[in-house]
Design goal:
4% of the residues lie in helices and 46% in strands. It is mainly beta.
Length: 268
Amino acid sequence: MRTGRTGTAAALAGALAFVAFTAPAAEAADTGITVTDLVVNNGKPIVVGISEEKSPDFSFRVTWPSGYTPERVDAFPYLYHGTTAAAGAEDGGIYMSSVTLYDDSPTSADCEGELYINPPYTLDSNSDATTWKIAVAARLWDKTDTKIVAEEYLTGFGSVAVKRAARVTVNASPEPVTKGKAITVTGRATRADWVKDAYTGFGDKLAKLQFRKAGTSTYTTVKYVRANSTGYLNTTVTASADGYWRWSFGETETTGGATAAGDYVDVR
């Protein structure tokens, strides 16, 4: 496989810098390359915030026609959510940063690597929080390693969800509190806004208020509370024992889940 490869057990080292993907104008001739067992991010959703770079891993097996060495073969996984794999490769895809080739025969190899997501540049719309299709850009090169002999986009590898990261805060007061008196528990649910490059209110989100008694290790759900239109949570409970209060909610189709660190209240 190309871009600094050797065709040996570590053809493309993980230390490779980001690989700029230049897509051809249209799908072309059959390469004879086949890719199987392609898995992205262990089959789990990719949850992305507003600034932290993400490197979802992938693995697959590739087979190429006889007469070609690994140095003359490309098999680059990427994600797209356009109408076709070709259009997706050219317009706003998520591409790989590195791939390592472990060739175990003259015409096949196991591969593993990473995709690259830099939120401010890769994700510029909240509608990018959706299901992305998985494809592979396949190419064969001539013996001079300068001319593409055949190229195509391989599809049918399923999909992976890309989701907006979420956060939730908590504050329980007063601290300390007299047993039998009211505790007010507040907080705010927010999620990544890829347009504003900020975490903004997760309006109307249903959250669980949970309690863990001091000296125990398990949280119990006390009640469900729906956030207001700007993501703020507010409720009251009766003080009964020392312990930790937190808000928690699960993921949705477009957004990851979040759980606050427990806020301790001393009950006297």
